[in-house]
Write a structure and sequence with these properties.
By secondary structure, this protein is of the alpha/beta class. The protein has nine helices and six strands, in the order ααβαβααββαβαβαα.
Length: 221
């Protein structure tokens, strides 16, 4: 089936799109979007792939679910559209970047600037019903995004995977640790961060150190 996703990904995921589970998933998503308010907006469901092509991937950050508040989700995990108040997890991400790298806390929470530098900002579930966290989980998205992680692991080398929190850490089993680097820590949510599991992980400077060691361009966080 035809999926509106960047051709660099379409070429490698074509077989996935034709599987029964994916056809069922798309049917579910279309029904949800037609009958109730869902996020992100339809054209932005695959934004993570459109803004970070397969060839450009250098870093992968894995989230769980899109934001479910009005105007927040823009298809990139942890990211919000320009002009939207920063959610608590994103605030803690920016605080850690400031402490770790000295980059000043930004005005915009839109992480498209990261995606365009080769950071795949991948939610395990790509859609959600408004105001209902987790409402599109276990419908097939996780099977698809697990395949994406496996594809990157199998077909690329020297990718930095940032796994934050228990959910993301479970994805480590999909990654070839002989070919890639994995950095883990607690989740940036206040519940985890305030217990000391997030701040001080220095993942942003560590990621750039790894990229530099592989002769890759560092990320301007």
């Amino acid at each position: 089936m035809k999926v509106n996703i960047h051709k660099s990904w379409e070429e490698k995921l074509n077989q996935e799109f034709d599987k029964p589970y994916f056809k069922d998933l798309i049917g579910f998503v279309k029904s949800e979007y037609a009958s109730t308010r869902c996020f992100p907006p339809g054209p932005k469901i695959f934004s993570a792939f459109d803004l970070c092509t397969f060839d450009d991937v250098k870093v992968v950050i894995i989230g769980q679910d899109p934001y479910h508040g009005i105007g927040q989700a823009n298809g990139l995990c942890f990211s919000v559209a320009d002009g939207i108040a920063h959610p608590p997890s994103l605030i803690n991400i920016f605080k850690e970047i400031e402490t770790d790298t000295g980059i000043a806390y930004p005005q915009s929470g839109n992480l498209e600037r990261w995606a365009k530098q080769g950071v795949l900002l991948l939610n395990a579930t790509l859609t959600v019903r408004a105001h209902e966290a987790g409402s599109h989980q276990n419908k097939g998205w996780e099977q698809f995004t697990d395949k994406v992680i496996e594809l990157i692991s199998d077909k690329k080398k020297d990718i930095v995977f940032l796994l934050w929190g228990g959910f993301a850490k479970k994805k480590a089993k999909l990654i070839d640790i002989q070919q890639h680097d994995i950095l883990t820590s607690g989740h940036p949510s206040p519940l985890s961060a305030n217990r000391g599991y997030w701040f001080g992980n220095k993942h942003f400077s560590k990621t750039n150190a790894i990229l530099k060691s592989k002769a890759k361009k560092e990320i301007n966080w």
